[in-house]
Every structure is written in structure tokens, then in C-alpha cells.
Amino acid sequence: MRTPWALNPRRLAAVARKEFIHVLRDPRALGIAIVLPIILLMIFGYALTLDLDRVPLAVWDQSRTPQSRELVSRFEGSRYFNVMAMSGNYEEVSASINARQTLMALVIPVDFGRRVGSGRTAQVQVVADGSDANTTTLALSYAESIVRTHSMEILGEKARRLTGHPLTLPLELRLRAWFNTDLESRIFIVPGLIAVIMMLITALLTSLTVAREWETGTMEQLISTPLRSSELILGKLAPYFVIGMVDMLLSVLAGRFLFDVPIRGSLLLLFTVSAIYLVGALSLGIFISAKAKTQLLASQAAFVATFLPAFLLSGFMFDIGNMPRVLQVVTYLIPARYFVTFLRGLYLKGTGLTQLWPECLLLVAFGALMLLLAIQSFKKRLA
Amino acid sequence: MSDFAVTLRDLERRFGAFVAVNRINLDVRRGEIFGFLGPNGAGKSTTIRMLCGLLEPSGGHGTVAGHDIRTQREAIKRCIGYMSQKFSLYDDLTVEENIDFYSGIYRIPKAKKAARKAWVLDMAHLQAHRHTRTGQLPGGWKQRLSLGCALLHEPQVLFLDEPTSGVDPLSRRAFWDLIYEMAGQGVTVFVTTHYMEEAEYCDRLALIYRGELVALGTPGEMKERLMTDQVLCVTCDRSHEAMGLAAAVEGVRDAALFGRDIHLMTEDAVALAPRLRRTLTEAGFEVGTVERITPSLEDVFVSLIEARDRADGAQKEFSA
Description:
The structure holds 2 protein chains of 2 kinds.
Chain A: H1 9-24, H2 27-47, E1 55-61, H3 66-77, E2 81-86, H4 90-98, E3 104-108, H5 112-117, E4 125-128, H6 133-163, H7 185-216, H8 218-223, H9 229-258, H10 267-292, H11 295-312, H12 325-331, H13 335-349, H14 353-377
Parallel strand pairs in A: 1-2, 1-3
Antiparallel strand pairs in A: 3-4
Chain B: E1 4-15, E2 18-29, E3 33-37, H1 44-51, E4 59-64, E5 67-68, H2 73-79, E6 80-83, H3 95-105, H4 110-123, H5 139-151, E7 157-161, H6 169-184, E8 188-193, H7 196-199, E9 204-209, E10 212-217, H8 219-224, E11 230-236, H9 239-247, E12 252-258, E13 261-266, H10 269-282, E14 287-293, H11 297-319
Parallel strand pairs in B: 3-8, 3-9, 6-7, 7-8
Antiparallel strand pairs in B: 1-2, 1-4, 4-5, 9-10, 11-13, 11-14, 12-13
Helix pairs in contact in B: 3-4, 3-5, 4-5
């Protein structure tokens, strides 16, 4: 009696060859495999950005003095704001915010120029659309920073005129953000996106493959033959492994050349660990498929079991440190969490195995465990 | 090596409270064409699946090609061919790709591979269609290809589960020629069917009904010995109406329509014939011939199944 783990290469090759033909002749599968990752890359790379750029701004300058124009030019010169409208009254300000033409309005009172010129405190008003709290908080802090900087400049100018010396501040802050100097969220998102794409595509594709054979009745024929479950499962993995690696390459190339995300770590390590993660994700899909036995149930289960955790709980979009304690504990069970950490470390910091070995080790364990489960879950039995 | 390709002892399969196969005993000799008959849901497919190692028996024992169906399932799978009720090759693969796939699964030796493939293509008359997608073939052709793939590795025992359902009569005849050819080469063929004319082609038959073995024997034995009733064939106008009347005549056990004839089961055909003719004529029917005939297999099965139903009904009344 031979163990179920024994493998016959000819049978394995026969299954792999058949599966390749299935994929190549199924336009839907090819669509999921190639088009879907490209769409995801475009959405997350271009459209979805956590940065706030060029907040549309309305300006109502009642003062119309050199001093007020100076302040407006500070806003215009900043990359964070884009002056969209010059308003003449409050109605216009509120109309442009209501129409979502602008997100914020700068209102400069009539006496602004006079008060600044005479050295007294002048007031400026910033009105913001508070319906999107996150964006508004960010925009308000930009506005505050521009106004404060400008007010320091006025103060400095005054001091220079009075004393003949430029004003020296007691403290000076020098900001420097390592690894992502420009603090662009794209640089942060794209590496994590690889983890989400690989998990989603491969689990979606493989979740159908075993269930389909149960539905069409071909499985009954297969289990009447000497084919072993290890040969069947590994044979089924083969074409999807190739697809997964192509998607991975696609994401890496898009990241490097389309989104200018630098890769600071070793490419060899990147591809090796990705391959391991891929085996785990594929096996998870097969496992779901073998348990579900219908394609509809399998694809829904695959979506819930892979995409949602990889998207929400991996730290790809939402910082794990900010999650409630219970959810934080749950994230330790999500393999994508380790892969996202690994990808960001390797991409942005250029770290290697010396720092990332715990993540790599856990991913190897995930891959091996899932493969084992997938092979074991498949029973050569009808009921 | 035993003389039997299949032996079953008290084989049983339950699904929850439902007994699909109830303690079946039978032996199939090597090289025999063994027919397994019964209405839909009688337990034919369940039995065949247990024999092929696809389902675990709930009770009893069995061997296929000398291997135990409980403990040596994988050994069995190497020496059997199986064709399930549903067409189960890959529609999106070509004829040749399907053959190559099974050739790999059964590990046909490299030296033999090309010859076996040519044999299947010839047998199924698909030489000209080797590059056609299997899904585009007509039903009868698919059936032949399935048979070919099940025979690629030259199995000792071939299990066919309703191989000709949904196939036109001409293809069905051609398919049976192939089955004879296999049997001639020493392959044991275990085939389920519900076509009575196909039952006549088998060397031996088993009739299964509600999970139980009702009768076992050659088609000839079944017709001669198992039939306690005699059959009276009546030709008559408005046979459908006449049947209702005939069934009520004293001495008639059962009545059934066969085409435009009425077949009546009775213990004594000679005594019944004049009585029946009188009754029908008095009721205004034009009666043609009334004669005792040799029962067909269908008569035998209808009679056996109805006898079984009567016995079950009596038992229910008794226990109530």
C-alpha cells in the first residue's frame, strides 16, 4: 500500500496539461487572470490615493489690498490648494461648496490689509465642507500651516525693519521622512497591492476548478481511475501557479515603470517569497473548491475567505495599530498581513532576510499547511 | 485466481434511513455480459459505484477482479473501466486530448501508447475527428469515445452504467456490437440498463427493485422458470377501455397494454380465454384473437415486480 503522498510524474503531467488547456480555452478564466489584475492596478495606483492634492478652493477677498493678495498667492502657490473660484459674497461661497465645486473657502475681511499694514492682528476665515471628515481635517491642517507660515513671515519682516536683523526663531524643525521622502501613498500602496491581487485572482480561479468537475460529472470518472489526490491537486495548481507568477510580474513591472515605485531589496527574494505565498493562496482556493462542490458557493466562499481579509485586515489599507485589540489579534491569522509587511520592507526599506525572516518563515508555514490541507481535503469518494 | 470477476455477499448501502441497496448476493463469471436491470431509483447505480470503489458499502462484502471492495479500492481501479451514466469526458478538450489525458492517468506504457490511441479512434470511428472538440460530437459518438477511454488500459472488468440512455436505436445497436467484441476478448462486462431489448443481449441478468435482488438468471431461464403466471394476449378494438373491463374478470391477476394488445396475467389461460371473450363481446367490444403467448422479458419483469408489490402490501396489512 503506497501513501497518498506518493506522486507519479506522468499522471501529474497529464492533469497539468489538461488544466492548461482548460484555462487557455476559457475566455472568462483568462479575463480574470490578466484583465482583472490590470484593472485593480489602475484603480489602486491612480484613482485611489490617500494623499490630498489640489484641494479646490474658493476665495472671497473683500480687502483687495497687496496684503490680502499676498496671502491668496500663498494658497495658490501651494501644491495642496487650487483656487477654483473668486467669489463676491457668501451666497457664491456656499453655492460653490454645495455644488461640490470647491471643498473649502478662504474669506478675507475688508479691514485685513489695513490691520496687517498697521501691525494689528487680522482675522481670516476658512470655511470647509465637513461632510468628508478625513479629507477636511487634512485640508484644514494644510490651511492652518500656510496661514501660520505666512504670519511668521510678516512678523519676521517687521522685526527686520525695526532691528535691522532678521528674526531668529528659538527652535527650528527639520522634517525628513525616510523611505518615502515625498510621503506619497502610492509608494506605500503598490507593494501591498501585489499581495491583494495575487490572493484574489488565484483563489477566484482555483476555487472553480475542482467544483466545476463535480458539477459536470467528470470528477466521478476521475475518481474511478488510479489517479491520486496529490497528483490531481498539484496538477491543477500548475497552470494557476504560472498565471499567478505572470500577474506578480505584471504588478512588479507596473509598480516600477508606471508608478515609479522603487524596489530597494533583492528581486530574487521578492520572487521566491511571492512564489511561496502563491502556493498557499492557490491551495486555499483548491481547499475551498473541494469542500464547496458547487462553483457558485466556491467562488463566493473564496471571495470572503481571501479578498476581504487580504484587503481589510492585512494592513494594506488600514493601519493594524489603529484597529480594536480583538481585530489586531485576528490579523495574526491572515497570511496577507505577513506578505504585506514583507513586501513593504523589501520594496521601500530594502531589508532582506535578516529582518524579514519571521514573516518569511510564517509564509512558508502557511504555504505548506494549505497545500497539505488541499490534498487531504480531496476525497476520492462520492458520498 | 477465482473464476468470478465480481462477487457480492449481503452488500448493503444506506443513505440515512433510506436503504438504497439491501443485502444483495450475486456472482459474475469472468468473460460474462452481466445485465443489471431495474426501474430508475432501484439501486443499480449505487451498486455499480460501490463496485468501482466510488462509494463505501454500509454493510456486506464484495470483490472485483479478486480485490476487496472495502480495503483494496485503488487496486480495483487499476483493473476496471467505468463509464458513468452522465457523459464525463471534457467537452473543451479535443477527442485526441481526452484520449491522451486518460492515457496519462492510466500510465499506458510509451511503447503501447500510439497503438492504443489508434485502437480507440478506430473503435469509435473518430479517426477523422481527432481534432474536434468533444463537446461538438453527437451523443452516440461521445458514448463511443467514453467507452474507448474506459478501455484504453485494457481492463479486466468493464462497468457500464446505462451506457445507451439518450442514444438513438441505431447507435445503440452499434454500441452493443462493441460490447460483444469486448466480451469476446475475455473482458467481463457489467452493464445496467432499463431497455428490455438490451436485456435480451446479456448472458445473465439480475433484476433489482427497491434495492433488493428480485430475480437472477439467463434471459431464457427468466422467461421459462421464473414466470409462474401465464400470459393471454387479446386483440380488441378500443383496447384502452377494454383493458379496464378485462382486468375485473375473475381469474385475471394483472392487465397491461402492449401496443394495441392487452396482456393478461393469469394462473390458467385455457380456462380464462372463453370467459374473457364472452365478457368483452357482451360489453360491445370487437374481440379479435385471444391466445396464450410466451412471455417477453418485459412481461416477466412486470409480473415479478407486481408480485413483489403485492407481497409487500400484504405484509404491511399484516403488520398493521
